Structures are given as structure tokens and as C-alpha cells.
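Page 47, continued from p. 46.
Same chain as before, 525 aa.
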Amino acid sequence: MRIGLAFLLLSISCSKSHRETMPVADDSQPKPRKADRNNRETPLYDVNAPPQTALTDLEGNSYVILDAGVPHQGIGEGAVAVIKYHEWDKNIDIKEQKKFLEKHPPTTHNEEVSFEDLMGKAPPGSESQPFQTTYFFQDKLKSDGLGFVLSMGVGETRMVWWRMQAIEVELVEWITKPTKNAKITSKKFGVPVVTQVKGTGKTANYYDRIKFRALKWKSSEKKILSKTIGGDCEEQADNLCDVLENMAEGETAWAWTTSDSGEEVAWHVEVLDIEANERPKVAVPIDVAAPPPDATKVNGVFIKKLSRGNTTISPNAADTVKVHYTGWTTKGRQFDSSVDRGSPASFPLNRVIPGWTEGLQQLNVGDKARLWIPEELAYKGNPGSPQGMLVFDVELLEVVVAPKPPTRPKHYKKAPRNAKRTKSGLRYLRLKKGKGPRPTADSYVTVHYSMWDQTGTLADSSVVRGRPAKFGLNQVIKGWTEAVQLMRPGSKYRFWIPEKLAYEGRDGPKKGMLTFDIELISFAK
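Result:
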């Protein structure tokens, strides 16, 4: 919406073609009906000066009532005004505009904007805009200087001479925060919905592209949303998707959901348009909502074998698995599927969510199973990922056994006496000699490495993953940048890197001094 001081100032025009005197309406002639205003390009009054019969509101704005409305008996807290409006820029000369800007500087800009900047960016003024509709929370009306709307009756239309513009405003309705005292018309996914206006189009589905307008109330925030989501209705904040799936195109309704933090959220939602999208190929399991009695619980994961393979090969946590899978929320919403993509996925089993690491170790190659993974073993606290219990159909196609992990060094708590020391405090021993030039700090290196923490736990290893690591020496911890420059291709060293040269200040396995075995395979400048 253009109404608002900062945007209004940007719309000022100094074009000569827009300084002509606008026609003045004859007060005695009948006013056009509201239906006639949508395409009208000529204001009813001179935009630069109100008629002598104009009234003055409490904020000092001059106005003329074009259509009377129904007075309200008070507006509830958090109410939203639905407004239609035309607007015209006033034709004030440059000097007058500059005086106005000096007296009313733009307050909504994050940085200072000069008068010359504003004028340089200004589009032509004095042009009628379409009869637009917009929404304002009542406190926003006051903060934006549009408090005069609060004194208008529903259905009332005014011509208001306001700041640098003249605007024709119609107050269409007030929408107040919905309460649950109305009759519930539907309840899907546990969301109470009260239909206000029935839809006449197609019903919204999770996978469709849905264009909507929503008003949102909860104790911690109020918002006006006007957007399109999908296809795949993302897990919108405060379970908005649960509301949209209850609704049809053209429908307006109230609804109530619960936020992730447990707050009640009240909604007023209007579905404007639905564009159908292709549905997933894999059918939703009939027991997707909860694990059935015949599912077996192993380390927190519920498992139901759907079919068995003819092997006894099962993976360990360090192994790489090749699988076909499809994942759903317990509401039956598919969020990922290698089957739909037509390509199986491969990954180390200890590099995925804990529920997968636990669950797939219970399968043999060729098995198909359904896993119910509780939130704490899935994506709990990970924004942008599906939340709650997740359900997966998994087919284990192949297991690639991980290389045997390297032997833990005897001296992992501190370096031995015979370890050499650099000025920075780095300690090292050469385990295998190499040959050729040494890399520099800006070299790109290829290495195999293993890392042990202060407890002697193998915290990371390219050896276990079965593939070397590649990176720029100036993109790693200080201890690595210094250490690898001591090496020649083909050599293998053991380094003890003090915390100040590693991950200083971090908790977990990377805390304190770390022990690294590094083999330099090659490098490039």
C-alpha cells in the first residue's frame, strides 16, 4: 500500500505536466455510486485544497463524507480495518515540498535520505491509482498517521486531504480477533475451523500452490500475511498448512491452531486461488498416524518389516548404505522420496538422523520396512525440517562396509617428549617420509586424516569415510594451516594441535587439544 509517509514522499512529482489545476467538483451535483469509482481517473475535488464545506478531524485533516457508514460501538483489541482507497498526489511546488520534508522528515527509512534523493527517485504524481484494498491492525493505523479511519463508520467513504496527498477512503469492514464461541464447521488435523464464506472452487491440498490472505493473532505477535505457498505446502509457522487444507477456493474462515511453543493462534484466512500440482506417486500408509501394535520398538525407533530379503548382510553405523525411501509426517504429508525422484540415495549411516542410524542397522539387504521415528531422534529443534514423529518406508538395497577405523594413538591426551615443537605450540612426529616440495598457506591440498579428542574418541576420519578430503589450506583451523606446510607429498605425520590453534571456545568433541594423523596425498597452487 502506498499510504505511509516514507512511500508518499517518494511519490512526489515535480513534472510540469502534473502541475495543472485539477477540476473542482460541484458540491450540488450527485456523487457517483461506489461501483462507479473503480475505474474513475478524475478526483471529485481539487486535490490541492478542500472545499469550504470540508470538515476537520481530530488529527487536523480536512475531509468530505462521500457516503455515510454505520457507526461502530467500539472496536475490539487487535481489530483489523479493511480499507479501499484511491490516492492523488498534491501539486505543491518544489519549495513547498522541501519545506514539508524539513518539517516532516521520513521516519520509516533506516538511513537518512536527502530531499534530492527523494525527488530523483519520485515517479510522476497526481495520477489516480486503482481502487485498492489493504488491511491495517488498528494500532498500525495510529502509528502510520491514519488514525482518522478509527472514527469512520463501516461503509463510509471520505475524501481526505492528508499530508502530501488527497485520498478517497472507504472503510469496508472491521475484522476482530476470532473466538471459539461460533459453531465449528470442520475439524481436520485437530484444527477447529468456522466457515464464514463458503468456497465455490477446488479444495486446497498440501501439494498445491495456494494463494491466500491471512490475519494472525497470538500473544507474542500479530501479522497480516498475503502470499502464495507450495507446491508442497511448507511447514508454515504455527501450523498454517493445517488451516489451508480445510478450505476451498474462495472460502473465508476462522481457525485456531497451536504454535510450536504451545501458544494458541487465531486466524482469519481467505483462500484466493488454488493451482493444482502433481500428487506424489507413493501412496500414504494407512498406519501413518502412529505405530501399530505389531511394530517392534528398538532403541526408541518403531519398526515394522514389510518384506524380507534373502541375505543376512546388515550395516553398521559407520557403513554406507544405498536405499530407496519415502518420508511422511504423521499427518500423511510426504516431504521426501527417492522413489518419486527415480533414483536411490547413498550415504554413511552415521551421517543421518539418529533414528535412521538406529533403524537401518536392524535391516538386512533386500528388506523393506516402515520406521516410526520420534521427534527427538529426527529433526527436533532444526528449523526448516519436518517436525514431530516421522514415518519412513525404506528398502535397503546395498551396504558398503566402511574401512577399518585407524588405531587410536597411545598419546592422545598430550604429546610425547620426543615430539617436536614449533613456536606456536604445535607438536608433531613424522610417521612416514615423503618427497617433493612443501605446500604453502594458499595451496589446495588432498589429504587423508583422522582426529581424536581428549577422551581418545575418533571424532572424524576421512579414512573411515573411504575418500580423501580436499580444501584450501587458508580455509581451515590455524593448526592445520601450519601443520600441513611441514609435510611433503606421500608423508604421514601425527600432530598435537593445542586448543588456541584449533576450535578454541567450542564445547563437545572439538574442545581442548586434538590429535591428528594426516597423510598428504598431493597439493596444487
